């Protein structure tokens, strides 16, 4: 819900969406004949891969690209590896994708591989890193990162999505069990949970401190939760983990509880799909399912020049293929008709000041974007607080000149990171 102000000097109010009081079961998407899995490990032509085309895989098997790889993915199906190739993200970072041809008979008729899970974070990280909700087990298991507080988010961080809220309404018992698991396997002693202020959760949550969050965007972003509920201001260039705070979605906590109960990995991801007319759909799909399968289930026809957005309208990113797979952290997918896509421009800034007034971090975005357009990334950071930006996207939303300020900021941070790494 969006409420625009009548007077230009006041801020527009962007309201988070809420699920229906008694949510229906999501529509289950059948397991497709081919799954696409992303593996965050680049291919090296000079090395022999540990997995190869034609290899048979079991349901629940860990897949490493090389014998000494620290990154892995889990096969949600039994089948055969059909393709191993390079994948590039929107910044040109390369990783690897696998196409697995599903053996429907074996997938339906066999149980997942059982894991020897122990009550340690290292054991959980060894097997459960790719659970639905993408639990940050790698961070929690890193001995160089000291985490003393885990914040479980039952409030969706972006607009239009209701995935986190749905998990809270339907699986609060699983969230409580997951908190118990986390208390057993980690040294973290403080647990907090965010719940939207208008959500009717009757359960008592004794294991965590409850934060009732505002329904006005961007109240549910990690930086705002730190400020509003933990009285902490995130320093420029730092992450919540640098301050000992780890954020974890409600779905990740539920998935962790299920995994420890069954000693297997679950693979069904809950996500919110927004059609061209703005109609929301809630689905469950196996991780690796191409988006095309979901669109077909709701008769959503994607034409040339339509836009597919992974994530919400404020912080999401575009993908250019209906074959993009569902990932462990895919909470929202939006389809925009080509005739209704907001136009961007290369017009110069008109100095209306809207981006400055709306910025929750008080950044002079009108001047910052000029430096970013010129490629002066270090100056943007040193003089105009590039690294203080919380990436809420409000500046781009209100921009009179329709400058893609948020995209410039993301690119600027990425390029600055590369420059510092090269130095």
Overall number of structural domains: 4
Shape: globular
CATH class of the largest domain: Alpha Beta
CATH superfamily of the largest domain: NADH-ubiquinone oxidoreductase 51kDa subunit
Mean pLDDT: 92
Strand order of the largest sheet: 3-15-14-18-16-17
- Report helical residue fraction: 25-40%
Write up what this structure looks like.
This protein has 423 residues and is α/β, with parallel strands linked by helices. It has 4 domains: 34-109, OB fold (Dihydrolipoamide Acetyltransferase, E2P), CATH 2.40.50; 121-262, 3-Layer(aba) Sandwich (Rossmann fold); 268-340, Ubiquitin-like (UB roll); 345-422, Orthogonal Bundle (Fumarate Reductase Iron-sulfur Protein, Chain B, domain 2). Helix content is 27%, strand content 20%. The chain contains 13 helices and 18 strands. A 6-stranded mixed sheet has the order 3-15-14-18-16-17, with no helix packed on it. Helix 10 packs antiparallel against helix 11, helix 10 (365-373) crosses helix 13 and helix 11 (377-384) packs across helix 13 (405-422). The longest helix is centred in the last third of the chain and has 18 residues, at 405-422.
What's the quick description here?
The chain is an alpha/beta fold and 423 residues long. It is built from 13 helices and 18 strands. It has 4 domains: 34-109, OB fold (Dihydrolipoamide Acetyltransferase, E2P) (Beta Barrel), CATH 2.40.50; 121-262, NADH-ubiquinone oxidoreductase 51kDa subunit (Rossmann fold); 268-340, Ubiquitin-like (UB roll); 345-422, Fumarate Reductase Iron-sulfur Protein, Chain B, domain 2 (Orthogonal Bundle), CATH 1.10.1060.
